[in-house]
Amino acid sequence: MLRWIVWRDLMLAWRRRADMLSTVFFFVIVVSLFPLGIGPETQLLRTIAPGVVWVAALLASMLSLGRLFANDYQDGTLEQLLLTPQPLFLVVLGKTFAHWVVAELPLVLIAPFVGVQFDLSRGTLWILFASLLVGTPVLSLIGSVGAALTLGLRGGGVLISLLVLPLYIPALIFGAGAVEASVMGTSPSSHLSLLGAFAIVALLFSPWATAAALRISLE
Amino acid sequence: MNIYKYASPASFYPLAGKLIPWFAIPAALLFATGLFVGFFIAPTDFQQGDAYRIIFIHVPAAWMGMFLYILMAFYAGIGWAFNARLSSMMASSLAITGAMFTAISLVTGALWGKPTWGTWWVWDARMTSTLILLFLYIGFISLQAAIDDPRRADRAGAILALVGVINVPIIYFSVQWWNTLHQGATIRILQKPTIRGSMLAALLIMLAACWLYSVAVVLIRLRCIILEREQNASRFAEVGV
Amino acid sequence: MNWPDLSMGGYGFYVWGSYLFSLIAIVWEVVSLKQRKKALVKQQQSSKPVPTPVLRGSINETTS
Question: pLDDT tens for residues B44-101?
Fold first, then answer.
């Protein structure tokens, strides 16, 4: 069942490739805006890079959250999924994973290239990649709770942002912190391990919260 | 006497009405007393001069912001778990008062920071966590405002509040870590002055005053919410839906 | 008991500013609640001339 859900969502997303690309383009553009707004001085850019890339990833992630359940909600598939004997936890897990592959993984892959704009060293770019690889699942998982709570509501993307951004802050702190540690030459391992811990906890608890929120939004 | 009848909004309404003066009047008295002790009895602080007197409103407001959030999550959770409408209404009522106290704590904190440490805003762990708490309140209030169906709003709010309350320690811990990492020039700021007898007394009296005020105001708002929602319910009942 | 220095040692703006803001916030909360209550009561009295069973014992009467 899990495999089927993931496969189905990936297929559907592939048919709407443009959505996936627009998220990536948004990320790239936002990251590029910061040097334009602040100035090209490399030392400064290296300092702000971790925060800038991470915040851009947060924002891009949030923009894509609306798509997680909205399409299925609109055509009634979501209600059917709720009625299956399969645990809703698994359905949510599958959809969230597919969402991560489609919306976040491209960001993770492209981030090192974007990080080059900030004159980061190769080692730091690897840490950037790693921090986003571990951190973006947290964004998808926590974001899924927000997406489920705001199903079908007006106010859409802004409302999800209000709900979910405060909850993203620990991931932001440790994700950006890991990259910053690398920039400064210290070890990012403690940041990354805490980020990993968040990811595991989010994996265990948020699908359950999302499932409960889906039931509430759909009854 | 069956106490459970008060779980019904319609019967709690008059009880709340009777309770309000019992909280409002002592609240006013305690505010007056607390301010009197704080300004007329507590001595000037050695380090911070008279600027420290802001703590008599800043600290109680910060604590109320936190307590009320936890209380709000508790009532929302109960309302969801036991399908108790009145509990959920209580949570919705608590949200605005809690947000207000959090905002007061932020503004007074900034006004305290400027004379003592030179800047309006400092990203220390406590102030940053308070700011995030305000965001959590705003999220809760916005979510409930965006949902028309009251029961869906109650339950959705419950999930958000519970997720929030679990995250608050995580957020606080993260912010503390972040703050110690970036210590650099910033010193341990907004340190409370060594609390002496009369200062502590004033602080506790003001805290009690804030509690009583909160109960009174939350009950008043709860009555408004009951009127707004039960009015609709009775209309449905008449139609037979 | 000692009379406080009203200028708060030069910090008057900050101290009194804090309390003024808090006072305004509290007054705003109470006043807006009173207005909300009044509007609700007026609306209910105009739309329901006969007290319904649900609302009986709420606005006009107190239960024992």
Answer: 777 777 788 888 999 999 999 999 999 999 999 999 999 999 999 999 999 999 999 9
Residue-wise pLDDT tens digits, B97-139: 999 999 999 999 999 888 888 888 888 888 899 999 999 999 9
Number of independent structural domains in chain A: 1
Q: Two tokens at C15? A: 């101290």
Q: Do A145 and B163 touch (CB under 8 A)?
A: yes
| 3-state DSSP helix/strand/coil % of chain A, to nearest 5 | 90, 0, 10
Contact A30, A60 (CB under 8 A): yes
Break chain B into its structural domains and give their ranges. 55-187+199-239
Domain of A169 in residue numbering reads as 2-218
Distance from CA of B74 to the nearest CA of C (A): 23
**Euclidean distance between CA atoms B104 and B100, whole angstroms:** 6
The nearest CA of chain C is from the CA of B115 a distance in Å of 7
Which residues lie across from B45 on neighbouring strands?
A: B49
Which positions in chain A touch B152 (Cβ < 8 Å)?
216-217, 219
* pTM for the predicted model, two decimal places: 0.88
Distance from CA of C24 to the nearest CA of B (A): 10
Task: Enumerate the H helices of chain C as residue ranges.
Answer: 12-47
3-state secondary structure A19-84: HHHHHHHHHHHHHHHHHHHHCCCHHHHHHHHHHHHHHHHHHHHHHHHHHHHHHHHHCCHHHHHHHC
CB contact under 8 A, A177 and B178: yes
Instruction: Indicate contact of C with A: 3+ CB pairs under 8 A.
Output: no
Angle between helix B150-181 and B85-117 (nearest 10): 30
Handedness of CA B24, B29, B32, B37 (dihedral sign): negative
Residue B57 · residue B108 · CB < 8 Å: yes
Mutate to test the interface with C, among B39, B137, B215, B229 (most CBs of C within 10 A): B39
Residue matched to tokens 């990259």: A179
From first CA to last CA, the distance across chain A in angstroms is 23
Tokens of B55: 């703590």
3-class secondary-structure state, position B45:
strand
How high is the ipTM of this complex? 0.90
**Contacts of A22 by beta carbon, 8 Å cutoff, 6+ apart:** none
